[in-house]
Amino acid sequence: MKYTRITALAAIGVAATLSLTACGSDNSGKDSSSKGSSSSSSSSSDGGSKSDGGSGSGNSEASNAKSGSGKGTEAEEVANGTTESGSKVTFCKTEDLAIDATDAAPDEASGRIDITMINRGSTTCSATGFAGVDIKDADNTSNPIERGHAQPRVTILKPGDAAVFNLAYDIDNTGNSLSSPTNILVTPPNETHTVSLKWPAGAGEIKGAYTDVEVYPTHTTK
Question: How far is residue 175's CA from residue 179's CA, in Å, rounded to a whole number?
C-alpha cells in the first residue's frame, strides 16, 4: 500500500510538471508573437511615414522650387543688367532722357500727373522701377513722395521710345489746401542725377499733405 501511494504521488508530480511546461510554452509563444507583431507594426509605421513624408514628393517639390527660383523675373534680370535673351542693358542716364510733366487728372476728384521720359540717347536702356520724386513747395521746402502699392514692370527704351510714370493724389476742391507745389524733382530709376520740372499749370490742388501723394512705377507708352 505504501508503495502504491508513492507511485501515485510520483505520477501526479510528473503530470503537474508536464502541465506547467505546457503553460510556459503557450505564454512564451504568445509573448514572441506579440513582440513580432509589435515590431512589424513599428517597422510598417516608420516606412509609411517616410514614404508619405518628405524624401519623396515633398523634397522633390522643394528642389523644383529652388531650381525655379534660381532664375529671376525679367524685371530682376533687367535690374541686374541683362535681359532674358542675355543681352546687356544699362539703366537710362538722366542726361539721356527728355523729361516732362503734364496734368492728366481723369476727373475733378482724382489728381494725376504724368511724367514722361523719352530716351534721347543712342543706345537701348532700362527705365524699370520707381523714380525718386520730391515736390517742392512755395516755402522752399521739398517733400519726398511715397511709393504706391504696385509691382514694377519691365520698361526697356530703345532710342526715341518713351516711358511714363504718374503721381496720384486726391484733389481738394474746398479752396483751403495747405499745399502750394511749385516744382517736381525727379530722379530716374537707379540714377543719382535729378531734374526739376514745373508743377503743371491747371493741376488740381492737393488734398491733405504731400505724404498723401503717391508715385507709381514706370511703364512704356506702347
Answer: 11
Asked if 104 and 137 count as a contact pair (C-beta separation under 8 A), the reply is no
Cα torsion at 78, 84, 85, 87 (round to 10°)?
Answer: 20
Q: CB within 8 A of 166, min separation 6: which ones?
A: 104, 112, 113, 114, 115, 215, 216
Q: How far apart are CA 109 and CA 145, in angstroms?
A: 20
Q: Which three cell numbers stand for residue 163?
A: 516711358
pLDDT digits 0-9 by tens, 76-129:
444 545 555 556 899 999 999 999 999 999 999 999 999 999 999 999 999 999
The DSSP code for 88 is B
Whether the model pTM is above 0.70? no
CATH number of domain containing 94: 2.60.40.10
Q: What value, to the nearest 5°, has the Cα angle with vertex 113 and ends 130 and 183? A: 85
Which pLDDT value is given to residue 159?
A: 97
- Residue 41: pLDDT above 50? no
Across the chain, mean pLDDT equals 74
55 and 112 in a single domain? The answer is no
Residue 189 has a pLDDT of 97
Distance of CA 145 to the CA centre of its chain: 24
Which pLDDT belongs to residue 149?
95
- Sheet with 90-91, edge to edge strand ranges: 90-91, 125-126, 156-157
Q: Which residue type sits at 34?
A: S
Distance CA 193, CA 1 (A): 130
Instruction: Specify if 207 maps to a domain.
Output: yes
